[in-house]
UniProtKB/TrEMBL annotation:
Upper classification of the organism: Bacteria, Bacillati, Actinomycetota, Actinomycetes, Micrococcales
Native source species: Aquipuribacter hungaricus
HAMAP family listed in its UniProt record: NaMN_adenylyltr (MF_00244)
Membrane-spanning segments: none
Catalytic activity as recorded in UniProt: nicotinate beta-D-ribonucleotide + ATP + H(+) = deamido-NAD(+) + diphosphate
The protein's name in its UniProt record: Probable nicotinate-nucleotide adenylyltransferase
Enzyme class: transferase
Function field: Catalyzes the reversible adenylation of nicotinate mononucleotide (NaMN) to nicotinic acid adenine dinucleotide (NaAD).
UniProt-listed PANTHER family: NICOTINATE-NUCLEOTIDE ADENYLYLTRANSFERASE-RELATED (PTHR39321), PHOSPHOPANTETHEINE ADENYLYLTRANSFERASE (PTHR39321:SF3)
Amino acid sequence: MTSAPARRPRLGVMGGTFDPLHHGHLVAASEVAWRFDLDEVVFVPTGQPWQKADSAVSPAEDRYLMTVVATAADPRFTVSRVDVDRPGPTFTTDTLRDLAAQRPGADLFFITGADALEAIVSWKDVDLLWRLAHFVAVSRPGHTLDVRALPAGAVSVVEIPALAISSSDVRRRVREGRPVRYLVPTGVLQYIVKSGLYRDGDGPARSAR
Ligand code: ATP
Ligand code: MG
């Protein structure tokens, strides 16, 4: 009797600055995991994000911990330190190569929002990216997806429930004392309060709510 060939593990990769992680990230990962029958989605917080080099980004360790807190309850979600621990700016080719080396035989699915996909063409070694992973571009309010210029079959487009949440807006809200509850997971809100992240040193001392 011959047994069926083992199915190759299907690994989603959700890269991001996660400063902080919010419900838009979780819904994107969850929806793509379902649509593509993924066994796991690994969240990969960036090290020093080169495309954001001009703006201040919170310490990698804070962003890593918030990502762990936010994903801890979901058995499909894990967090990787490959980008946080690699010195220098983060390039997605390095992320995918490191994860592929850690998971030989797995098929990789890189999950990206519509805005991030627009930036992909400016990434280093863009042709190599398509060989390292299948790309899944999710819809994001305020951004349109145009995959016509990209190689056929390299990118799948997935419509997800629209959440007009961004980390920039969450940071701004904390700075201004406006609510972020329900935009971010409760544990992330608690981490923001405890760490004092996003509070403007010169502004009024307000805590996140
Ligand atoms: P910032 O405002 O600081 O850029 P962000 O909300 O865009 O933060 P990132 O960490 O930059 O979050 O995004 C990580 C990935 O998640 C990107 O591919 C981004 O397009 C995607 N993403 C973020 N928010 C959403 C959302 N609300 N809906 C769909 N995709 C999202
Ligand atoms: Mg962004």
